[in-house]
From TrEMBL:
<dbReference type="InterPro" id="IPR010982">
    <property type="entry name" value="Lambda_DNA-bd_dom_sf"/>
</dbReference>
<dbReference type="InterPro" id="IPR001387">
    <property type="entry name" value="Cro/C1-type_HTH"/>
</dbReference>
<dbReference type="GO" id="GO:0003677">
    <property type="term" value="F:DNA binding"/>
</dbReference>
<dbReference type="Pfam" id="PF01381">
    <property type="entry name" value="HTH_3"/>
</dbReference>
<keyword id="KW-0238">DNA-binding</keyword>
<feature type="domain" description="HTH cro/C1-type">
    <location>
        <begin position="15"/>
        <end position="69"/>
    </location>
</feature>
<protein>
    <submittedName>
        <fullName>XRE family transcriptional regulator</fullName>
    </submittedName>
</protein>
């Protein structure tokens, strides 16, 4: 039973992080999902267990996968990682490839020790 409570808390904390990264308040999420503010607060605190249908609704709202919401607590990404993931998922495969290439170029340039002003991207 204790393990189930911990899982609910971890999932709730993950939902809260995704909500914050999305720039939404609990009230806005509640309105979008047709729930009360109190229900969203209790879900984020882990005092309400979420069913698969509700997890799917959150995943759609935050533009992520259900598996992202129930990921292992050992792998707690920063809010920036959540934001990057959300933005990355808005790109098509060609755009994703171009973005990855650009990031690789930036890292290569950074590791070369050149001045910021010399990067041409």
């Amino acid at each position: 039973m204790k393990e189930k409570i911990e899982i609910n808390k971890r999932v709730g904390a993950t939902i809260a992080k995704y909500r914050k990264v999305s720039g939404l308040s609990q009230a806005q999420v509640a309105e979008l999902l047709g729930l009360s503010n109190d229900a969203i607060s209790r879900m984020e605190r882990g005092t309400i267990a979420l069913n698969v249908e509700r997890l799917y609704e959150f995943a759609q709202l935050f533009q992520c996968r259900v598996s992202d919401l129930i990921a292992d607590s050992q792998l707690q990404p920063t809010e920036q990682v959540y934001q990057l993931d959300r933005l990355f998922n808005q790109l098509n495969s060609v755009e994703r490839d171009k973005l990855i290439s650009l990031i690789e170029q930036i890292i290569e340039w950074k590791n070369s020790g050149k001045n910021y002003r010399t990067f041409s991207g």
